[in-house]
Amino acid sequence: MALYLRSIHRLCTARQTMSFQPPTIHRMITMQVKTVQEVEAKLEETHDNKNYRLNRPMSPHLSIYKPQLTTILSITHRGTGVALSGVTTGIAVLFLFTDVPTFVQFVHGLELPSAAIVSAKGLVAYPFFYHLCNGVRHLVWDAGKCLTIKQVYSTGYGVIVGSLLLTALSLAFTT
Fold first, then answer.
1. Tens digit of pLDDT for each residue in 103-144?
2. Residue 72's Cα: distance from chain center in Å?
3. Going by C-beta distance under 8 Å and a sequence separation of 6 or more, which residues neighbour residue 124?
4. pLDDT digits (tens, 9 = 90+) for 150-166
5. Letter string b/e over residues 47-70, b meaning 16 or more CB atoms within 10 A of that residue's CB
6. DSSP result, 123-146
7. Cα dist. 14→20, 23, 102, 139, 147 in Å?
8. Model-level pTM?
9. Strands, DSSP E only, in 33-164?
């Protein structure tokens, strides 16, 4: 009990000796009171023109940012998810009207060169494996791992290399 009381006493005295400095505000925007007539949009006035007339600051836009690996991977992850959903829906709708053997016979009847078939398989396999690898990366992040900038970039490059490798392996071992 005495040890506990001593530690509480030390904590209280330490807090009293600390000096806290208020945060420095580098930029302040003052609010201005406007009348209803000033704020109302003029006839055929665009949103941007109204904000310019009212001297409102412009929000940053994507065009001012330098593209980064993390940004590109995030956008690509969303795009591959949408693409895979579209492909899955298309295949599901296709098989509502036909069965698999009939579809395979139709594809063989087209007499496509093998390069075209391999390319088509790759166009489906790469988004699948990319989305899979990046999904695993996100699960690792959800576990609180690999969150430093260096680890985020290294896992990003790992996702690209891993998805390319898995795509190449899947194309090499398909008939």
1. 999 989 999 999 999 999 999 999 999 999 999 999 999 999
2. 8
3. 87
4. 999 999 999 999 999 99
5. eeeeeeeeeeeeeeeeeeeeeeee
6. HHHHHHHHHHHHHHHHHHHHTT-S
7. 12, 21, 80, 41, 33
8. 0.64
9. none
